[in-house]
Amino acid sequence: MKRLLTVTVAASLLGACHFHSRAGLAEHANDKSSKVVADTQPIVRQAGEPAREPDREQDRSSHATASKPMGRTSFFTSDGRTAGRFLMANDVVISFAKIAHANAASDEVEGFVRRLLTDHTQMIAAMRALSAEQDISPSDDNGSRDLRDLSTLQRDSLRALTGRALETSYLAMELDRHRAMLSMIDDVLVPRAHSGELRELLAAARPIIAAHIAHAEQLQSTLARR
Predict the structure, then answer these.
(1) Hey, which end of the chain has fewer CB within 10 Å, N or C?
(2) How much of the chain exceeds pLDDT 70, in percent?
């Protein structure tokens, strides 16, 4: 697993060096100004939990239960939602890249699209392999569903464009999407992850996403000068 992530990070960062200096990548890797994706997964009572009389004994019992750390099942449920949201975010990037791949007008944007398809496909494969290895079941939460619903609307608008208009809109969308992914990793996924290997995978994905931002910004600047 670590070897797969190491290869992915190295390949992406080598591609980024073609467009930016190491200082530029570091600047973008620390960019956390994007809107944070809220963790909106509701907390629900487990099915079959017996009801108790509302007395003082119940209050003391409830307080003691709340003070106990989460068990193994709770950890895996939380990690499943973390893995699920990461997978959803990468799936969205790939779905947009496929649209751009079929309609891009320039070789530069086409190269960027191929890079995203390769890198995000590898990140999905790494997350699925880790999930299988640790018996984590990726699951949707409200944040995952929001990502999916928003992307559906954006894809419809992107499909209506061609040529330079499509490239301009696509690059703007991916800049927003990748900046939001960095904030999601930093502010939601890593803090919520309990598995050390899961946190390591998420941390390894961050420089790849930051390099994509640097690449997209360079392309935006190039297209603006034409």
Answers:
(1) C
(2) 66
